[in-house]
């Protein structure tokens, strides 16, 4: 898998190394893995070539003037290895200035982030360690914290994960993708792009020993979908089950030749002491992260409203280079990962990453339906802090429309969706309605940007889709459905993660009428509640008992209760009457709706 070695000669040797690329070093073990750039040295007597790392004595090969192999030295005692006289160097210490970073008010010390962290209180992480076979959709339904806190899976067994071999290196990446392929590299000291890198140059850099690296760099954005490496990597099954790109983006519009969000397969290569400063993954996307070799240390901050506000203030300001974000939030948690570990990071978690040793990681980003509100909130923070579009989730709005189109069909078909998903759909619908309002009332440039993100192959009437989806999501969650503004919530009793089962009586009976639904706004409304009356009455049906629901049929029969004059007999009945009146203008006049509701509470004395 590795490319042929680069052969550089010692100054005393003739040519640029062995004439044949198949030449081997006599001192190498048969299974030794060649370095990308090998220094070779030629014996002046027998003209045999050796790897300097095999035959040398630790000296710099460039200092060699005349060299003999061990056999030739033993054969003739007059032969001796000689070295060039070293060039005179000034003993005066010179400071090397990094002018690019000085212009930004930064130093050239890549460890300044670690210095900033010294003495800070870091909490041990409270996150769950799980077995791979337990990370399933059932876990999402049964655990209210599922996909709301990071989880660590120490062994990949049962995750449905596929990875390259553990000895896969940067050299292998360059070989598979091409040594001249450009790669984005981050300068750790400035946390900004370092231009001019190729995978070949990066592989050479990673092959250097840590003490020879003049600067610390990091590769964190090499996406490999559609390449040979992608054939070696399969994300965990839970990720594939949840991922919006995987489940909602049309399969005919993915793959080679199509433009779609390529964020599912990243190869991350970090060297010793690399640091990635505090960030939230784009659009609040969740992350799966597998350590192939090496180790990583994560620092986490919970995405509470207060912490997110602190992050928004810190991000993109002078505070970013001068302030430890941990001082502005409630707590920082530390997680250490080693080879073979996998972590899933949920939406919105603020984190920084330290690399203790050279490390190879495979991971990816994904949006999902169990925390849509946080995803949209983070997207809004990105816009507020003017994050460039190239660093945001690609085609976020277009993907959201595909998701909306599918969930609208589910609602129309009375699908039984988990309550957390329904609440997320409402957040999604509110976001899309805001997009529609731009389409209807924004300036021409804004209208154009919104329209370009609407997938016309699926969404024919975007305003109708957004508003109908919001209407149906409100009903499913328990909100009233009138108007553009959210009404009051009717039912807060269901915990997160519990499905809301819709009875036949609750199912919309006019779904076919809502193909292009847009609710009309009422111009005025009033509610009056009459004083409650309490009496003793004979109930219409039996008192509920146990888990049986047989008692419901008698009560639903709408029979009249018989009121009694004799106190002490029957059941205490409290009855009140509520009157609702709503009005709005029509093309020809006024529409008025008058609704009368009777509410009865039957209380048996114990």
Number of helical segments?
17
End-to-end Cα distance, whole Å, is: 80 Å
Q: What multimeric state do the chains show?
A: single chain
Poorly predicted regions are 1-16, 89-106, 490-518
Summarize model confidence as the mean pLDDT: 82
| Rg estimate, integer Å | 34 Å
Number of strands: 24
Q: How would you characterize the largest beta sheet? A: 9 strands, mixed
Helix-strand category: alpha+beta
Strand order of the largest sheet: 7-8-17-14-19-12-11-9-10
Based on Cα principal axes, name the global outline.
elongated
Helical content (DSSP H or I, runs of 4+)? 10-25%
Task: Determine the strand fraction and express it as a percent band.
Answer: 15-25%
GO molecular function, one term: zinc ion binding
Keywords: Chromatin regulator, Dioxygenase, Iron, Metal-binding, Nucleus, Oxidoreductase, Transcription, Transcription regulation, Zinc, Zinc-finger
Catalytic activity: N(6),N(6)-dimethyl-L-lysyl(36)-[histone H3] + 2 2-oxoglutarate + 2 O2 = L-lysyl(36)-[histone H3] + 2 formaldehyde + 2 succinate + 2 CO2
Family: Belongs to the JHDM1 histone demethylase family.
């Amino acid at each position: 898998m590795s490319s042929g070695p680069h052969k550089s000669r010692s100054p005393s040797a003739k040519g640029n190394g062995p004439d044949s690329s198949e030449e081997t070093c006599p001192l190498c073990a048969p299974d030794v893995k060649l370095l990308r750039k090998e220094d070779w040295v030629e014996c002046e007597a027998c003209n045999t070539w050796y790897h300097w790392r095999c035959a040398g004595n630790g000296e710099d090969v460039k200092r060699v003037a005349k060299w003999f192999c061990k056999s030739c030295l033993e054969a003739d005692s007059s032969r001796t290895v000689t070295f060039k006289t070293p060039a005179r160097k000034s003993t005066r210490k010179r400071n090397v200035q990094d002018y690019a970073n000085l212009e930004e008010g930064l130093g050239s010390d890549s460890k300044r982030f670690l210095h900033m962290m010294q003495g800070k209180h870091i909490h041990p992480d409270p996150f769950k360690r799980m077995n791979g076979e337990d990370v399933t959709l059932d876990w999402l339904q049964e655990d209210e914290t599922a996909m709301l806190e990071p989880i660590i899976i120490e062994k990949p067994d049962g995750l449905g994960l596929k990875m390259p071999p553990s000895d896969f290196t940067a050299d292998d990446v360059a070989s598979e993708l091409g040594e001249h392929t450009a790669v984005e590299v981050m300068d750790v000291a400035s946390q900004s792009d370092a231009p001019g890198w190729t995978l070949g140059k990066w592989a050479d850099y990673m092959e250097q020993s840590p003490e020879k690296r003049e600067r610390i760099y990091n590769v964190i954005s090499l996406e490999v979908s559609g390449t040979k490496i992608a054939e070696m990597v399969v994300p965990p099954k839970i990720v594939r089950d949840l991922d919006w790109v995987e489940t909602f983006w049309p399969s005919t519009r993915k793959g080679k030749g199509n433009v779609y969000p390529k964020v599912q397969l990243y190869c991350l290569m970090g060297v010793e002491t690399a640091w990635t400063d505090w960030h939230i993954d784009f659009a609040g996307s969740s992350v799966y992260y597998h350590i192939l070799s090496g180790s990583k240390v994560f620092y986490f901050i919970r995405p509470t409203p207060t912490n997110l506000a602190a992050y928004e203030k810190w991000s993109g300001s002078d505070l970013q280079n001068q302030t430890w974000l941990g001082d502005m939030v409630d707590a920082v948690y530390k997680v250490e990962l080693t080879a073979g570990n996998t972590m899933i990071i949920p939406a919105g978690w603020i984190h920084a990453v330290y690399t203790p040793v050279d490390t190879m990681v495979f991971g990816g980003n994904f949006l999902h339906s169990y925390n849509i509100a946080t995803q949209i909130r983070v997207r809004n923070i990105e816009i507020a802090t003017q994050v460039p579009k190239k660093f945001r989730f690609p085609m976020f709005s277009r993907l959201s429309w595909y998701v909306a189109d599918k969930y609208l069909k589910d609602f129309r078909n009375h699908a039984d969706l988990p309550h957390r998903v329904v609440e997320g759909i409402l957040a999604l619908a509110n976001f899309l309605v805001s997009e529609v309002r731009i389409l209807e009332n924004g300036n021409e440039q804004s209208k154009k940007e919104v329209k370009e993100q609407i997938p016309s192959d699926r969404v024919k009437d975007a305003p109708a889709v957004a508003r109908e989806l919001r209407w149906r999501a409100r009903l499913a969650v328990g909100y009233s459905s009138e108007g553009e503004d959210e009404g009051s919530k009717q039912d807060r009793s269901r915990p997160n993660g519990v499905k809301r089962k819709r009875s036949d009586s609750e199912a919309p009976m006019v779904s076919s009428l809502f193909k292009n639904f847009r609710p009309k706004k009422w111009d005025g409304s009033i509610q009056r509640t009459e004083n409650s009356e309490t009496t003793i009455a004979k109930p219409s049906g039996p008192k509920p008992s146990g888990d049986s629901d047989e008692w419901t049929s008698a009560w639903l029969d709408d029979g009249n209760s018989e009121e009694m004059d004799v106190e002490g007999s029957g059941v205490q009945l409290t009855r009140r009457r509520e009157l609702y009146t709503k009005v709005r203008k029509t093309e020809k006049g006024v529409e008025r709706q008058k609704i009368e509701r009777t509410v009865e509470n039957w209380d048996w004395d114990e």
